[in-house]
Inverse folding.
C-alpha cells in the first residue's frame, strides 16, 4: 500500500517573501488590487522573512491588512501565510480558524479554493474528516479540483474506504490540465486497482 503522508503547509528553503510573491504572481493577483494593499502585503512579507521573531511588528502589519485592506486578495494571502506559520508551530486549531477566515474573506475563486484545500488538510490532521470532506466539496474552480479530489482520496484511504479512495483518485486523474505530482497519483491508483483488473489490461488513469 502507498503510505499516506501528512503534508505541512508552507516551509521550503527559499525566503518566505519569495514564496509569497510567487503565489501572488501565479494567481494573477497584482492586477485589480490597490497599490497601497500591495505595499502593505510586501511590508508584511519583508518583516516575516527578515525578522520573524519581531512578533509585535508582524502583528501590527497583519492588523493593518485586516483593518485597512480587509477582503482584498492581499489580506487573504497574508491569512494563508499566517495559517502556514500556525501549522509549523503545531497550532492546528489556530491554523483552522485562520483558514476559515480566509475562505470567508476571499473574493477570488482561486484563493477561496486554495484556502479550502489547505483547510481540509488541517481539519484532517485534527481528526475532523467530516469537516475536511465538506471543505473539499466547496472547491469549484478547475485549477484545484484535481488536488481536492486527491486529498479526498487520501482521507478516504486513511478511513479504510479503499474503493471510494480509488474512485476519488481516478476523478483527480480525469481533470484535464491539472498540475501536481501525477506520478504519485498514478502510483496511488495502481496500488488500489484490483489485481484482476490489472491482469485484464487495465491501466492506471493518471497520465
Amino acid at each position: 500500500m502507498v503510505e499516506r503522508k501528512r503534508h505541512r503547509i508552507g516551509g521550503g528553503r527559499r525566503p518566505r517573501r519569495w514564496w509569497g510573491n510567487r503565489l501572488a504572481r501565479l494567481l494573477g493577483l497584482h492586477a485589480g488590487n490597490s497599490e497601497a494593499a500591495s505595499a502593505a502585503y510586501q511590508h508584511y512579507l519583508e518583516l516575516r522573512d527578515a525578522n520573524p521573531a519581531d512578533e509585535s511588528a508582524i502583528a501590527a502589519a497583519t492588523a493593518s491588512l485586516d483593518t485597512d485592506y480587509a477582503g482584498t486578495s492581499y489580506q487573504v494571502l497574508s491569512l494563508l501565510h499566517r495559517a502556514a506559520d500556525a501549522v509549523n508551530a503545531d497550532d492546528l486549531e489556530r491554523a483552522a480558524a485562520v483558514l476559515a477566515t480566509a475562505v470567508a474573506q476571499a473574493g477570488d475563486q482561486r484563493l477561496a479554493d486554495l484556502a479550502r484545500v489547505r483547510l481540509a488538510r488541517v481539519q484532517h490532521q485534527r481528526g475532523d474528516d467530516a469537516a475536511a470532506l465538506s471543505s473539499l466539496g466547496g472547491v469549484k474552480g478547475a485549477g484545484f479540483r484535481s488536488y481536492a479530489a486527491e486529498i479526498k482520496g487520501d482521507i478516504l484511504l486513511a478511513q479504510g474506504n479503499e474503493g471510494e479512495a480509488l474512485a476519488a483518485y481516478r476523478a483527480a486523474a480525469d481533470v484535464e490540465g491539472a498540475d501536481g505530482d501525477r506520478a504519485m497519483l498514478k502510483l496511488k491508483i495502481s496500488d488500489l486497482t484490483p489485481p484482476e483488473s490489472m491482469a485484464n489490461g487495465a491501466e492506471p488513469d493518471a497520465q
Summary: The chain has two domains: 14-128, 141-207. Residues 1-13 have pLDDT under 50 and may be disordered.
